[in-house]
Give the backbone structure.
Amino acid sequence: MRLFVAKSLLFIQMEKKFQLIESAIPEGGVAHTLPGLGTFTISEQLDDKFIENLPEKLRSKYFKPVVATAEVAIVEPVTETEDGKAKRK
Amino acid sequence: MATVSFANIDGTSHQTPNPGGVRQVFVAIAKDIVGVWPNYKTQISAGEVTALPVMQTGKKFAKYVCPDGTVDVNDDDSGDPAYQSSKHMINFALAGFSKELVAELNKHRNAGSVFIVEQNDGTYGVCGSTDNPIFLKKSFKSGKKGNDKRGYELKGEQDGFMFGITPLAPTLIEDLEILAEV
């Protein structure tokens, strides 16, 4: 009889810190200008660090923070019986 | 009539850089803006424009990208005492010759505009107003040989203003909507 113990697995998916609020973008798109930052078009291509540097009013108008999503897979320890079938311990 | 007395002011730019030149040019046709902007009586206070224009639905300021060192805005007070007023002027260049440039500049024909420019120190100034807009006149030069400058020179001026080129309040700039870049 052999004992198999599976490990618990945890995946955290967080590719970007901010998500574009599509409904906040007017038809045809929109750009803004800021001293020191130049003119930039609001899009999901903007880098997280750039978005972080935007004034709060502008950032919250077009972007919302991405909440980390976690996928957890826990496999219970099992035992293998003599006939080769596994059963829960 | 009450007199507004003079105040002390330091005009030496002491220990602060003071670069000349304009970094960005934004333009809107006056008819794309609702009402009078900037309104001298209600939207200019303490030496700055205190409100953004209300745009017609879907309209935004456009950005003209000009060759380095080709943009300037000027104002000029003129008139004898008791008759003084201000004149606004803008000059810039657009290099090249293309159907896109021709089509864009044709929109200025007999159509007045209002400009917002970012100067090299990061301050934004307003040139023109919707009730007294700037009419651009273009001049194209092909150049005679390879290293001559080929392109357009644009000049616009308007007099009869109650105010000179006036800074746009810094807190308003982030709310200014501009056409998306393609």
Notes: Chain B has a mean pLDDT of 97.
